[in-house]
User: Which sequence fits this backbone?
């Protein structure tokens, strides 16, 4: 009998929470979602950003953009509607005013980009490709609110066209962010994988609308908007599950994640990482709380690497 059998190792298990998204290694699978965490700087005094796996910044367009008319947000049962409309500082404003701080934070920085025509996406991506401190680019493929904008994420051919063009100018990990407002999200995921995306993230918000019955006016200035929060979680888990059946590239799961258990559901359904969105408005520490929760879960379950959970759903 070996000595280790006689005297159990008193050290507690330290689970390995690291995951990889293409060539990008994340210290843990928890990111914060685009549009719900500003450019990171706004949360620096509230959250220990270095404990996050990564930060995904607000969608950047070539020029600064004022966004849609107010009201831009409305509460719904178990969620919220927003029609912010890609308000952002523009790519030059980001590089000048936001990136220098992000370069000092020990976490992955993924910059989300958008635009109207393909050329605008390409211009933003080319500009970012020259900068230090950017670890990946996430492509917001559904920007119908931007002038001249096209929804690239509802047609597999257009989705592939956009990713093919970006692939030519970007060596960084390229993540295609998909909309759930389609019949078959797996088909879109497949087309962007073939076009050269390193990963997909799913899902963006679901199209929704709310009406004030006294005034009979829409509750959002943009009339319709995007639904997010716990209400969309089962839709998002199903999307991840469907995509995992169609692609081999990593999936980043997003949609209604409020707790460690929610995050685990996405990993088990097939996500290699997750993003926390609306929950940041309730508690900005949700992401770092989930990191701690995943660590505890893995230690308690005797899981040495969180990667072993990815796609581990026991489906009959
Ligand atoms: C107020 C708000 C602003 C958002 N802005 C963006 C954005 O600029 N770009 C983007 O790709 N997604 C944006 N999203 C979508 C989120 O990143 C996320 O995909 C979605 O909200 C679902 O996740 P959640 O339910 O955890 O919020 C935004 C969501 C909200 C609530």
Assistant:
């Amino acid at each position: 009998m070996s000595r280790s059998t006689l005297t159990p190792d008193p050290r507690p298990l330290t689970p390995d929470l690291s995951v990889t998204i293409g060539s990008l290694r994340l210290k843990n699978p928890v990111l914060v979602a685009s549009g719900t965490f500003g450019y990171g700087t706004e949360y620096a005094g509230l959250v220990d950003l270095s404990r996050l796996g990564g930060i995904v910044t607000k969608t950047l367009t070539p020029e600064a953009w004022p966004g849609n008319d107010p009201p831009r947000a409305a509460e719904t049962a178990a969620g919220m509607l927003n029609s912010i409309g890609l308000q952002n500082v523009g790519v030059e404003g980001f590089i000048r005013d936001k990136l220098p701080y992000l370069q000092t934070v020990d976490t992955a920085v993924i910059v989300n980009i958008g635009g109207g025509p393909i050329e605008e996406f390409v211009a933003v991506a080319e500009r970012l490709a020259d900068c230090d401190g950017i670890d990946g680019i996430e492509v917001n493929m559904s920007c119908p609110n931007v002038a001249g904008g096209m929804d690239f994420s509802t047609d597999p051919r257009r989705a592939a066209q956009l990713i093919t063009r970006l692939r030519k100018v970007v060596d960084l990990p390229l993540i295609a962010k998909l909309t759930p407002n389609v019949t078959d999200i797996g088909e879109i995921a497949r087309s962007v994988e073939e076009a050269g995306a390193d990963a997909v993230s799913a899902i963006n918000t679901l199209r929704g609308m709310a009406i004030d019955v006294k005034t009979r006016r829409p509750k959002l200035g943009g009339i319709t908007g995007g639904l997010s929060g716990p209400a969309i979680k089962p839709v998002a888990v199903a999307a991840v599950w469907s995509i995992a059946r169609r692609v081999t590239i990593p999936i980043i799961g997003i949609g209604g994640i409020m707790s460690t258990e929610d995050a685990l559901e996405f990993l088990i359904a097939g996500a290699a990482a997750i993003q926390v969105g609306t929950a940041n408005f309730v508690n900005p520490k949700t992401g770092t709380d989930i990191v701690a929760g995943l660590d505890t879960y893995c230690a308690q379950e005797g899981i040495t690497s969180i990667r072993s959970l990815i796609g581990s759903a026991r489906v009959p």
